[in-house]
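ok trying this again, last paste got cut off
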Amino acid sequence: MVNGMRKLNADEEIEFYKEIIADPQKEKMLNNVRDSFHVLYSRSQLLLSLITICLTITGFSGPKIAEANMTSRILIINGLFFVLLSAVILLSGPLFIKWVHCFKAETFEETIKALIHRRDIRTRKYEIAVYMLVIGLTAYVGSVITYMLNI
């Protein structure tokens, strides 16, 4: 049981699909919730792409910037830490896959409520990841500025 929902086996999942398809209102409700997960997933992928760019740049220019002085070194290390933290939060939250149709509570309404709760938790993790990324990028920019002032 996860959030009052239990994982369905393949046969139970097929029956759940039939239940949903048989009622257009249920199908529309579940599609709306599933769409909100999709938006969250897409935005998280965008952040992960930005994180990848940051890490790639750090691989090429990070050592040179860190050599400039202690301030640059501290800032780039902090930047790297917060960018990586953001990636971990994204991968363990919004980008962690759990299929909408393979969990079910006692009633359809309880299932939707549990899915909304799961979506809200993932949204909060996404927001935290954004904040961590902004802190990391700020530290990166600070390290580059410090580097530029000292060359």
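PB: full thing came through this time. The chain has one domain: 6-149.
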